[in-house]
Amino acid sequence: MVRAAVLPAVGSPLEITEIDLPEPGPGQVRVRLAAAGVCHSDLSLTDGTMRVPVPAVLGHEGAGTVVSVGAGVTHVAPGAGVVLNWAPSCGSCHACSLGEVWLCGNALAGAADVYAHRSSDGGDLHPGLNVAAFAEETVVAANCVLPVPDGVPLTDAALLGCAVLTGYGAVHHSAKVREGETVAVFGAGGVGLATLQAARIAGASQIIAVDVSPEKEELARSAGATEYVVASDTTPKAIRKLTGGQGVDVAVECVGRAVTIRAAWESTRRGGRTTVVGIGGKDQQVTFNALELFHWGRTLSGCVYGNSDPAVDLPVLAEHVRAGRLDLGVLVTDRIALDGIPAAFENMVAGKGGRALVVF
After folding, report:
1. pTM (two decimals)
2. Are 205 and 184 a contacting pair, CB within 8 Å?
3. Alpha-carbon gap, residue 111 to 240, rounded angstroms
4. How many CB atoms lie within 10 A of CB 96?
5. What is the DSSP secondary structure assignment for residue 161, as one 8-state letter?
6. Which of 53, 137, 280, 329 lies 20 to 30 Å (CA to CA) from residue 271?
7. Per-residue exposure over 128-152, b if at least 16 CB sit within 10 Å of its own CB, e if not
8. How large is the C-alpha radius of gyration of the chain?
9. Nearest one of 14, 18, 19, 21 to 38, comparing CA atoms
10. Tens digits of residue pLDDT in 288-343
């Protein structure tokens, strides 16, 4: 038996309970978690913004040590450190055939599987976003684990599984920030802080962090922000003032709210790029008129998982970590136990802190 955080139903509070995990079958890996990040996507699963089969063990940003492997698994062995990949590509769907593995149509197929059972009543449990990282141990498909690159501490490596891949990819793959460009990042949570660091790594000349909380300024500056703006109705005007009246070359929205997406768009210069990373609900409607689309000539794009290929990008991120350009510790403002996840969700809703990290 292992302890895990179970979502019994959409809209219900998490339950910290014991579950029974099977031994890994063919093509599966059992992992003992070292750490798991508490991501906004986990919160979106609890309130129904994103939907997966329930009851489910949540958590998708994690790293740990391989306990055992099933038949046919050769790329990792017991004792190896691994990063969990919650969105593995199938390699055969249309998106994968185009090389757009982050849009794989089968990436979340495993979330419908029954992977474990409640110890109390034998009830079926699904693996959240494929990997069920809010548990002391998990059993996942072999393509859901990647070796931890050399030089990255195992606990810190958990952050590579979502926040850092997403933030880095938003800057380098989606927005394609060039050296000397100006960047605004909306939201200074875990993904936002990773995005700020990625903009600095890209050589942005001016990096403006935007958040509703004045208390996050020091945190944002430690991640690379050169200016800080407390979000308000006049945020676009403030950003244009900071950029000589032009607006930024690139705005990255990490919140997922209509008002923030609109503000990011309006903060972008004529001909600039606005990238939306935040996951919003269907009720968050963003409107544009035809004339402004023509006049401003901006590009608005969505960004899924940083438009990243984890197998390719993890070694790149590790090199940035080893060289001191990427500080994973800056993202973490709280280290908690499993039973601290509900409070971490509350802080997220209140806009407090960066990434909360469950340490096992």
Report:
1. 0.96
2. no
3. 43
4. 18
5. G
6. 280
7. bbbbbbbbbbbbbbbbbbbbbbeeb
8. 20
9. 14
10. 999 999 999 999 999 999 999 999 999 999 999 999 999 999 999 999 999 999 99
